[in-house]
Amino acid sequence: MDAIAALTQRASVAKLDAPAPTAGQLDTLLQCAARAADHGLLRPWRFLTIEGEAREALGELFCRSALREEPSLSETLQTKLRNMPLRAPLLLVVIAQLQDHPKVPEVEQLLCAGAAAQNIVNGAYAQGLGVIWRTGDMAYNEHVLSGLGLQANERLIGYMYLGTPVKALPQAATPDLSGRCQSWPQS
Ligand SMILES: Cc1cc2nc3c(=O)[nH]c(=O)nc-3n(C[C@H](O)[C@H](O)[C@H](O)COP(=O)(O)O)c2cc1C
Fold this sequence. Notes:
Layout: H1 3-9, E1 16-17, H2 23-34, E2 45-51, H3 54-69, H4 75-83, E3 90-97, H5 106-126, E4 130-134, H6 142-147, E5 154-165
Helix pairs in contact: 1-5, 2-5, 3-4
The site of flavin mononucleotide (FMN) has 9 residues, from β4.
């Protein structure tokens, strides 16, 4: 797919099926991520892949962690949490690795990891894959983060749910940009 078409038409896909991206497609996604703009070339990111039965283990981790925060969680919500990672055949977790740097503040490192995540989203669409970037409580729950092995200097940027779109790949309409870009100074 043409790069501009991919960037301007990209749309998220929430309904995902098997097969998961191939090893080659996944490698391309990681290469896309690694080309995110990066002040100081700190490479302030790393990734986890979670697929197959590991998704069930992640669902258990979600449920266990939520119960530690809210012991009276309903059975319905527990089941919902257990099933969350099963919504796609592959989850790619994007993690920011923050480091002390005299010229690159933490916010810029977070932006870089976020740009890496967006490059994954764009790279998936360009390859005809379905993807949706999700966060929610399970991206910030300390028990989940420690179960995933995050260190104190790390932040979970997103769970990239990846798979095959159930329907044809959608094409997004361009949002209304009127008033969003002005020349400065205004006359
Ligand atoms: C940081 C971040 C977190 C997000 N978390 C969620 C989420 O937890 N659940 C969700 O449905 N969409 C989430 N989204 C939004 C979707 O990824 C998607 O962008 C949105 O549904 C709009 O669809 P579009 O990408 O096709 O425009 C998140 C997006 C970002 C950038």
